[in-house]
What we know:
Elements: H1 4-17, H2 20-47, H3 53-61, H4 64-94, H5 108-123, H6 125-152, H7 172-186, H8 202-230, H9 234-237, H10 243-288, E1 299-301, E2 304-306, H11 308-324, H12 327-346, H13 359-386, H14 388-414
Amino acid sequence: MIGAGVFTTSGFSLGDLGSRQYVLLAWGLGGLVAICGAISYGQLAQRITESGGEYLFLSRMLHPSVGFVAGWVSLLAGFTGAIAFAATAFEAYALPESIRPDWYVQGIISILSIVIFGLLHSIYLRSGLVAQNLVVTLKLILLVAFIVFAFSVFPDRWEGMEIESSQADFSIYAIASTLVWISLSFSGFNAAIYVTGEVVEAKKNVPRALLLGTLLVTLFYLALNYIFLFGPAPELIQGKLAIAGIASQAIGGNTLAMLVRVIVSIALLSSVSSMVIAGPRVYAKMANDGVFPKFFNTTMRGQTEIPVNAIWFQVLLASIVVGATTLRSLLDYLGFTLSVSAAVTVACIFWTRKKRESSLRHLMFSSIALVYVSTTIALAVLSAISRPQQLIGFVATLTTGLLLYFIFHRSRRSE
């Protein structure tokens, strides 16, 4: 979960909201919404303990066409766009524009990172998972060290604390757009559902992983954003991308800034890696169900089935997106599209009550799901009013998904 969003979003958000307090409030609200989503996804994972994510849930609970569109959204936005977003942000931190040689072509490092993880995860599952766990562990250790150091020099080296925050007018549309962006930073809360079928005691461990992971990340995000927003002078980060580097430069000078760039780079690499693991398993599940070409089926590697072709298809698409889009446009499209897709998935809880489930328990989880769905949809509507291009991208994704479903469905019937 801790990836590109938290290290890139707040500068843009401050530019729109004009108040650091409003930005921090938005991160807190985003965390509460994500926790509701994590609890709701955990309930769905207890009902269907197979890998496949939104595609599987919606296909089984609503209709195969809805599931197919969700899988298509996962392919384009959930993984392809998100991988490109994380890889592009990685390049921005690992090789800032100020030190890039004249001959360097933008996107080379981004694409190379995607290809390396594609190669790693298509060879042997266990080696890929070991590498992923090591990267995540190192990321968390370094982030904790950065947070401890930053607060150890508080407030002496926090020049932003000495500056009065601007009294910006509250805009419901601006905060809605910011929360849609922030939802992208939390979107990884549901990642465990994509590998549910490979988890030991999935009914217990997947919901636990979803909830504890989201709680932990919410605390990280609040601490990090407090540092990013109040460490440097606000005008230094307003509308800027690499806010972690700017904040660390202000607090600890060049040495800390360089260390933080390393930390953020590792965090972004772990995001690329995790999505290269999870995404292709959705397409493999769709191929196994006959709604995607057999090309995406899994391949045996040792004792494990690995979706090799799907992984390399994912690598190809993400590499193309790296060269064709910008971070800001990806942020708009991904935040809106993924939040609406997740809301539709969580809504399945309202009509999947277990016969032996107590009415009180069902009411509690239904209430949590209602909070998530209603809040997410309301924010998406307000954000679309403010930035209609988000809705255009979303509608285009749905339209192409439905068109492909009927093409594949008709071809299957003619076989």
